[in-house]
Specification:
Shape of chain A: elongated
Oligomer: heterotetramer
Number of strands of chain A: 0
Order of helices and strands of chain A: HHH
Strand content of chain A: under 5%
Number of helices of chain D: 20
Helix content of chain D: over 70%
Structural class of chain D: mainly alpha
Number of strands of chain D: 2
Strand content of chain D: under 5%
Radius of gyration of chain A: 17 Å
Chain lengths: 99, 504, 630, 501
């Protein structure tokens, strides 16, 4: 079947992720949406690897996963601390810094 | 069919040393007693930076693309940027060394018994040092990376530690943690864009390396939509890091929330690294597609200069104000990207150094202005500081004047060379907007001068703490650099000229 | 041309003494007035010796020049500080230094009670120096320096008692009116330079024949404006009356004998300009004619003895200006009247001063009366001056004024009739108001209150008066006998011997008419004022009288047309500056400030809105690139 | 090393010396400052003596590499125009120091800071007129703002902070426009003759007219702000009202001349064509300034504001003379710069003394001073006479030269300009009457007259006003060759007399 559909899919996933980041309040969910965007990128990489007929894209996707994992570690650490200190994971509550 | 990758360790030595230092720092943090921990950490960090710099000097004339299987370039620009990052990081660490700024135990809940005891018993955790070193290594890698993967990895390596460091303030921890959260979420968000952009560039060119992309663009037989999306999203990632409008929103909040020494470190070193990468990407990878991206980068640079300058006027918090001024400066630096000529590169090299010193110094001064509850960043309470401690206030004014780009300071030479490069490349509009917005910015800087010197002090308990030796050294160095680079810029300009080249 | 080496002393001496008296200040109070008088006298001495030296020389050699130093030299604009003493300027030198010295002497006594006498004499010397420079300068620019110099001296002397606000205002008024005239002089010089590439009299004279009539007319008009300012001619006449605020010797020297006649000097000196433009001459004549009637009318209603004399001065100078507008010989006649007038008017002013001296500074003639008996010498000298001015033969005024009337009639056609009529009318009115003055002051019953003790002035005061009186008797005959003065001046003014123009009527007839006019004027005056004079000016008088008392509305006019609009304009501009120009700047600043606040509001602290902004930005990026690449 | 450089270094040396002496010893600081400025004056005298009067080329030239990679040199050299302006500056500085002996005392900082700022400023004043490298000129042009900013803000009166801010922002705005223009011409040079900022070389460029117009405006606006030309003038009165007399003298007397000097040295020299294009507009602006400034001076209730507006009127005359582009106009304008420096200096000194004695700067509060403080009154009177360009005082020569020079090319403009002399008489005489004449207003009875120090400080200025009034030759001889060079470069000649013989 036509490979370009995978591209469309990745674009759709990325868009969903982006929308999620903008509309969802819970920090965890926001973070998930970002992960979704990363994976959309992965999908694009793999597909393009297939289209271009070289492996670079797939290699890239592995790197991405690793980096994403690190990001999870750091991200959760931050979110947890926030949650512990203010008993809420809502990103809207964290809005003391303004103006 | 796979051949084991060959690494040229001697050329990679600087960055490896820093990484090594970072790992060592982790071990120290784990095993050394609290008595000597801090000292050891400081020694290790500074030591590794010095060593790394020595290596830089050793390899300063080396040129190679194959140091790490074609994914990093050892060329003039990368060496210069690495050197700059190291020097600025060194000064940054001198500020960081003042442990009083950082949470004794990041994991402890703010105001909890646990935290209090940690402070009393001096169980000060010092993970800040290895984190800094990790960030530095990322910052060194970012400007030298020549393929999208390495760029992405470097980007994350420099960002992740910063996210954490932003949350480590001892006082106002809620704000600090909030800053960390915002920085992290938005940072990750932007790197997603970066990654997605890289994917599409790869899709367009079938190659991950900048040179490959460049060739593909010149060849011109790819799907332009991919190229377009690629450029756009990649730019989003980069512009976020340099803090350009409209991807700047995080800057004021994070700058305000993060511990001031970290803010200074971020403001200076991140800009260097980010612009290093940006310049390389646009000069090496995308120069052939300049007709696509020049207009938008021009628009963005204009927007950034204007918004940065104008928004600063109404700020009441010194750190936010400096954040906006750093945004404005990002705008000026972008003119160097648009110039897309050697002059532009040289100017940018000079500018990042000049700006780095000045901005570090400025934030360094902010750390000194305190009351019983720690730093005072409310500008209205800085009123009359010139009477209480003329020297500190005077130095701060010096930095402001340099920001404003008044002659005989490094800021002026930087602006001049950037605008000159932009004008040469025919972007006269940018130059005009540039000069006008610096006029606007000047108004804001002068307002601070008036507060410091010409307004009667409101007698509340704002004091200036006697700076620790290291802070004093750091500030002095920054001030001297600001003046010397303004009065006799040839020292650096010539160096910049020799190093202003990319290997493709 | 003879080159002389000591002309400069004429100016240097009084200038130095003025500087000394001003710089050394009170230290010189004791001998300051002596020094000043001696200096003035020695200047007169030099003048006389120069005069006789001149007599000794013939033809072109009579004129003497001295280059002192090169003053300004830029491109082709070269002006030397150099002096020219010719037949014309020597007349003035003698008048200025001669009358000047007499008045110095007079002032020693007159000002003896003023503890600033030294400053007064310094100013007088300053004036002498400036006035000499005015008449000795060999170029229009040098003349300009003297021109403004006398203006300054006049300003300082009118305002000598400037602690009285009215006096200070009078001084300012005089200066400003003169400045208006100076605009004319400056422009005349500029046009001259643009036309001839030089501003020396010789240069301009040489160039004049080659210049277009339009240019000459322009220069002439501008010179006339200058003359009007300095000589209180219509329409710049209004300052002279107020200038009487100055001490009386000043009025005598500056505002009667010398400075105010500088305008006449300027025009006669520029004869080569006016010869080239009949239009310019016509303007001169008109201005002169108007002023001589104007001044005479004002004179009829003045109760202040000095202001009455001032009005008469204005009118007499009108005669001179008129004459100088009537062709070659006119210049000479004008100068003749100028000289005679210098004597009798100065004399009468000193007389007035002497009266005031005796009446402790009372100036209102309605409070005089019958003083003649108490001040016989003053009365006598004044009387001689009086006979001279109204033109009774053989007194000085008769010769000069008669010539002018004759000239006026011979101007030809209706012009001649009008001008002649005007001069005749002027003569009649002059006779009227002068008689009125004499009658009210010296004759009739005494109207002063008991405090005043009129007494004859000391010798230092009456001696100068006497000398001047002699002058006002003899000079006319002297100048006229064998046309001596006209011939003397001929080389400079190329004035021919006989009175030009076609004779309308025989000279003897003109003289008869003039005499008739005088008799009528005197008769009316005697008729009106021989009987009791009310001590306060009667209120119920004709509109005409009221207008005349208000100096024919000259001040009202200036206020309504110049002052008030000027003040309005100033206030308007001050507001404009604040609200419009500076306001615009403030507006811009305000815009920036508000934009900044708006931007601050966008920074609302919500991560999600930041993310939204980023997404928007990203989309904008794509959109723009799209547009660009299309 | 060129004597010009020595002249620049001397005050700087003094400043360094001041920096090390104790803050407490104000008297010593004053003495050191005065001594330095006097030595500088002496050296300047030597320079003037060595100056070859008939040589129209730049003299005492010196050029060292500064920023090699941009072809920027420390290049100085002076011609007649620069010479007379430098002399004016170095004469005024000691006068200012001596006259304002106590000026530094009620400031925000110690006296020594005040004098350090003054001396640094003197260095820059010499440098800005001597610079023959456009970049060097710009650097000094901008850097000069800083000491003045602190002099106004730190030692001024009233709304000093706001005034200092307004001053600096206006100047900075203009300066930045000029920076853009400088970069522009630098780039053009790079394309034509290689990267340089050397004035002489830059003036040989061939620039197409539209670019030339833009670059010209970049320079001109900056200069029109400095030497305030209507409508860019509003900062000046504010500054003059707040600054100390000394600062005002240096600001209006010297710094603002950088504007008019720049018009000659840069606007006309670098962009002759554009200069011709804009001449009509500029002449109109100049005339507006002349009359507008005069009217507002008449309308002022505050004495320093009045002086400021008279200066705006005078700057109008100077600009008029410059752009008349005749030898009389140019030389006259240059001479005018010098004379205005002295006469405004004298005015500010006298006004300053009046204000400091009366503790008020409202004209209404003075009155009858001639009876109370005769010497002070005479000083003010003479300064005023020179402000209205009374013949016999130096300002007359320059004003008349400007007008006659203008008339030969633009008669109408000259006529309008000439009407300004009536207004001048008004604004001077009105303030003189209000402050010196009339009965002594209550509160002024026991004002002190000038003391010896004050007399000594103002005497030379008055003397110069009189001497140059009768003997301007030395100055003109120095200026003429330079202005000739400007004209020949701009390719204009004086109009010939109309009535040829």
């Amino acid at each position: 079947m036509d490979l370009s559909n995978y591209i469309y899919l990745s674009v759709i996933l990325f868009t969903i992720g982006a929308i999620g980041v903008v509309v969802r309040r819970n920090a965890i969910v926001v973070f998930m949406c970002i992960e979704l965007m990363l994976n959309a990128a992965n999908l694009a990489f793999v597909t393009f690897a297939r289209i271009n007929g070289n492996l670079d894209g797939q290699v890239a996707s592995f790197f991405t996963m690793v980096v994403a994992a690190c990001e999870v570690v750091v991200g959760l650490a931050i979110i947890v601390t926030i949650y512990r200190s203010r008993r809420s994971a809502s990103v809207d509550d964290a809005s003391l810094l303004k103006r | 069919m796979f051949s084991a990758p060959v690494l040229n360790y001697s050329l990679l030595a600087p960055i490896l040393i820093v990484l090594g230092g970072a790992l060592l720092g982790v071990l120290v943090e784990a095993f050394l007693g609290k008595a000597i921990r801090a000292t050891a950490q400081l020694a290790i960090s500074l030591g590794s930076l010095v060593l790394a710099f020595a290596q830089i000097i050793r390899i300063h004339s080396e040129r190679s693309l194959t140091a790490a299987v074609n994914s990093v370039a050892i060329d003039g620009a990368s060496i210069f940027f690495q050197g700059t990052v190291l020097v600025l990081a060194f000064i940054g660490i001198l500020f960081i060394a003042d442990q009083d700024n950082f949470a004794a135990q990041a994991s402890a809940i703010p105001g909890s018994e646990e935290e209090r005891s940690a402070i009393e018993t001096g169980k000060q955790q010092t993970e800040i040092f290895p984190l800094t070193l990790f960030a530095v290594s990322g910052m060194m890698l970012f400007p030298m990376a020549t393929d999208l993967i390495t760029l992405f990895v470097a980007l994350e390596v420099l960002s992740l530690p910063l996210y954490l460091m932003a949350g480590l303030s001892r006082r106002r921890r809620l704000l600090s943690q909030e800053a960390a959260l915002k920085y992290f979420l938005l940072g990750a968000f932007s790197s997603a864009f970066f990654l997605f952009g890289s994917a599409f560039l790869y899709g367009y060119s079938g190659s991950l390396s900048l040179s490959g992309i460049a060739n593909a663009i010149t060849a011109g037989n790819g799907n332009d939509i991919f190229l377009l999306i690629g450029i756009a999203f990649l730019s989003v990632g980069l512009l976020f890091k340099v803090g350009a409008v409209p991807f700047h929103s995080w800057t004021p909040d994070v700058y305000q929330g993060a511990p001031t020494p970290i803010t200074g470190f971020m403001a200076a070193c991140t800009k260097v690294a980010a612009f290093g990468a940006t310049l390389r990407i646009f000069y090496v990878g995308l120069s052939a597609a300049q007709w696509e991206w020049k207009p938008i980068i021009t628009t963005i640079s204009i927007l950034t200069m204007a918004v940065g300058a104008i928004a600063a006027i109404a700020q009441r918090d010194v750190k936010r104000a400096l954040a906006f001024s750093s945004i404005a400066h990002a705008g000026f630096l972008l003119t160097g990207v648009i110039a897309l000529n050697k002059a532009g590169l040289q100017a940018s090299l000079f500018y990042v150094v000049a700006y780095g010193f000045t901005t570090l110094g400025a934030f360094g001064i902010v750390t000194l202005v305190r009351d019983s509850a720690g730093e005072v960043t409310d500008l209205n309470r800085w009123v009359g500081l010139g009477k209480k401690s003329p020297l500190i206030a005077g130095t701060f004014v010096l930095f402001l004047i340099s920001f404003a780009g008044i002659p005989l300071t490094s800021g002026f030479i930087g602006k001049f060379s950037l605008f000159n490069a932009a004008y040469e490349s025919g972007n006269i509009l940018v130059v005009v907007v540039g000069v006008l917005s610096s006029a606007v910015a000047a108004f804001f800087y002068l307002r601070i001068v008036v507060m410091l010197f010409f307004t009667e002090p409101a007698n509340d308990s704002v004091t200036v703490v006697i700076p620790s030796v290291m802070t004093r050294i750091a500030i002095t160095v920054c001030a001297l650099a600001t003046i010397i680079l303004g009065v006799y810029p040839s020292l650096l300009l010539n160096t910049a000229q020799t190093f202003a080249n990319f290997l493709a | 041309m003879t080159t002389s080496s000591h002309l400069v002393y004429l100016i240097a001496l009084p200038l130095i003494s003025a500087a000394l008296l001003l710089l050394l200040g009170r230290k010189t109070d004791k001998w300051g007035h002596i020094l000043a008088t001696l200096v003035s006298a020695s200047a007169f001495g030099i003048g006389v010796s120069e005069f006789f030296a001149m007599q000794g020389r013939t033809g072109d050699a009579r004129a003497a020049t001295q280059k002192i130093f090169s003053w300004i030299s830029v491109g082709t604009f070269k002006v030397d500080a150099s002096l020219l003493l010719d037949q014309l300027s020597i007349c003035f030198v003698l008048l200025i230094t001669g009358v000047g010295t007499l008045i110095h002497i007079y002032s020693i006594a007159y000002m003896s009670h003023d503890h600033d006498r030294r400053r007064f004499f310094a100013y007088l010397n300053l004036f002498i120096a400036a006035m000499l420079l005015l008449v000795l300068g060999d170029s229009y620019l040098n003349l300009y320096v003297g021109w403004e110099g006398v203006g300054l001296a006049s300003y300082l002397l009118i305002g000598f008692w400037n602690q009285k606000p009215a006096y200070a205002t009078a001084a300012k008024k005089a200066f400003v009116a003169n400045r208006v005239g100076d605009v004319g002089l400056s422009l005349a010089i500029m046009i001259a330079f643009a036309q001839f590439g030089t501003v020396t009299f010789a240069g301009v004279k040489a160039g004049a024949p080659h210049a277009s009539t339009a240019a000459l007319t322009a220069i002439g008009a501008m010179l006339l404006l200058a003359a009007a300012g300095k000589s209180a001619q219509f329409p710049l006449q209004s300052w002279l009356g107020d200038a009487m605020a100055g001490p009386t010797p000043v009025s005598a020297l500056i505002h009667a004998a010398t400075m105010v006649t500088a305008g006449v000097y300027l025009i006669t000196r520029s004869n080569f300009i006016f010869d080239g433009s009949s239009t310019a001459r016509l303007m001169v004549v008109i201005v002169g004619g108007i002023t001589l009637i104007f001044g005479a009318l004002i004179g009829t209603a003045k109760d202040d003895i000095k202001k009455a004399l001032a009005a008469s001065t204005m009118s007499q100078i009108g005669y001179m200006i008129l004459a100088s507008g009537l062709g070659p010989v006119g210049y000479a006649i004008a100068i003749m009247h100028l000289l005679t007038h210098g004597f009798f008017k100065a004399g009468m002013f000193l007389g007035a001063g002497s009266v005031m001296h005796g009446m402790d500074d009372e100036v209102n003639m309605r409070r005089y009366g019958g003083i003649g008996k108490l001040m016989p010498i003053t009365f006598a000298t004044f009387g001689l001056g009086y006979l001279a001015i109204i033109g009774v033969p053989p007194f000085a005024g008769f010769y000069s004024k008669d010539k002018i009337i004759e000239l006026a009639f011979n101007a030809g056609g209706t012009k001649g009739i009008i001008l002649g009529g005007a001069t005749l009318l002027g003569a009649a009115i002059t006779a009227f108001y002068m008689t009125r003055l004499i009658v009210m002051t010296f004759t009739g019953a005494k109207r002063w209150d008991e405090k005043a003790h009129p007494h004859e002035s000391p010798i230092l005061m009456w001696l100068p008066m006497a000398v001047l009186a002699v002058g006002s008797v003899a000079t006319g005959f002297l100048f006229n006998s064998g046309n001596s003065l006209v011939n003397w001046l001929a080389p400079v003014l190329n004035s021919r011997n006989e009175v030009g123009g076609e004779e309308l009527m025989k000279p003897i007839v003109v003289s008869a008419l003039a005499l008739l006019a005088v008799i009528i004027g005197v008769g009316i005056a005697v008729g009106m004022y021989r009987k009791e004079v009310p001590v306060v000016a009667p209120e119920k008088v004709s509109v005409f009288t009221r207008i005349v008392r208000k100096d024919l509305m000259q001040d009202a006019f200036n206020e309504a047309v110049l002052m008030r609009p000027g003040q309005k304009l100033t206030e308007g501009l001050v507001k404009t500056d604040y609200f419009a120009i500076d306001g615009l700047v403030r507006l811009v600043a305000g815009i920036f400030a508000s934009t900044s606040t708006a931007l601050r509001k966008i920074q609302n602290g919500y991560v999600r809105s930041y993310a939204l902004i980023m997404v928007g930005g990203a989309l904008a990026l794509i959109a723009t690139i799209w547009v660009v690449t299309l | 090393m060129s004597i010009v450089t020595t002249l620049e270094l001397l005050p700087l040396l003094g400043a360094v010396l001041l920096a090390v002496i104790p803050k407490s010893n104000a008297e010593l600081a004053k003495r050191v400052a005065l001594a330095t400025s006097l030595v500088t004056l002496a050296v300047a005298g030597v320079m003037a003596y060595k100056f070859q009067i008939h040589d129209s080329a730049m003299q005492f030239v010196q050029s060292n590499k500064w920023i090699a990679s941009f072809g920027i040199n420390y290049a100085v050299g002076i011609d007649g125009i620069a010479l007379v302006l430098i002399l004016m500056a170095v004469v005024l500085v000691p006068v200012v120091i001596l006259a304002g002996w106590h000026e530094s005392e009620n400031g925000k900082w110690s006296a020594k800071v005040f004098y350090i700022l003054i001396l640094v400023l003197e260095t820059m004043m010499v440098g800005v007129f001597a610079a023959t490298d456009v970049f060097l000129f710009y650097v000094i042009f901008e850097a000069m703002l800083i000491p003045v900013y602190f002099l106004i803000g730190g030692y001024g009166r009233g709304e000093r902070a706001a005034a200092a801010m307004k001053f600096l922002l206006y100047s900075l705005f203009g300066g930045l426009l000029m920076l853009a223009a400088i970069i522009g011409i630098y780039v053009i040079a790079g394309n034509q003759i290689g990267h340089t900022f050397d004035l002489a070389q830059l003036s040989t460029l061939t620039i197409d007219s539209s670019t030339q117009n833009f670059l010209f405006l970049g320079f001109f606006i900056a200069f029109a702000i400095k030497a305030p030309l209507w409508p860019l003038h509003t900062w000046l009165p504010t500054a003059a009202k707040s600054a100390t007399p000394g600062t005002s003298i240096l600001l209006l007397g010297v710094l603002d001349k950088v504007g008019t000097y720049g018009m000659i040295r840069f606007c006309i020299a670098l962009f002759p064509e554009a200069a011709k294009t804009f001449t009509p507009l500029i002449i109109v602006l100049a005339l507006i300034s002349i009359l507008y400034g005069a009217f507002l001076a008449i309308g002022q209730k505050e004495i320093n504001g009045l002086i400021a507006f008279t200066s705006i009127s005078h700057f109008g005359f100077i600009t008029l003379g410059i752009f008349a582009m005749t030898s009389q106009g140019l030389s006259g304008a240059t001479l005018y710069m010098v004379n205005h420096g002295f006469s405004t200096g004298a005015l500010f000194l006298a006004a300053g003394w009046m204000v400091s004695r009366r503790k008020s700067s409202n004209i209404e509060d003075f009155g009858g001073l001639q009876r109370v403080t005769p010497v002070l009154a005479w000083t003010f009177f003479l300064a005023g006479m020179s402000a209205l360009a009374l013949p016999g005082l130096s300002s007359f020569v320059s004003e008349f030269l400007v007008l006659v020079g203008t008339f030969t090319r633009y008669p109408i403009a000259a006529i309008f300009g000439t009407t300004g002399i009536v207004l001048a008489a008004l604004y001077v005489l009105i303030v003189i009457q209000k402050s010196l004449h009339g009965p002594t207003t209550p509160g002024n009875e026991d004002l002190k007259d000038l003391n010896l120090r004050e007399k000594i400080s103002v005497a030379p200025v008055i003397a110069l006003l009189v001497i140059f009034g009768f003997f301007p030759k030395p100055l003109l001889d120095a200026i003429n060759p330079a202005s000739q060079t400007v004209m020949t470069h701009a390719g204009v000649t004086d109009p010939a007399p109309k009535a040829g013989k």
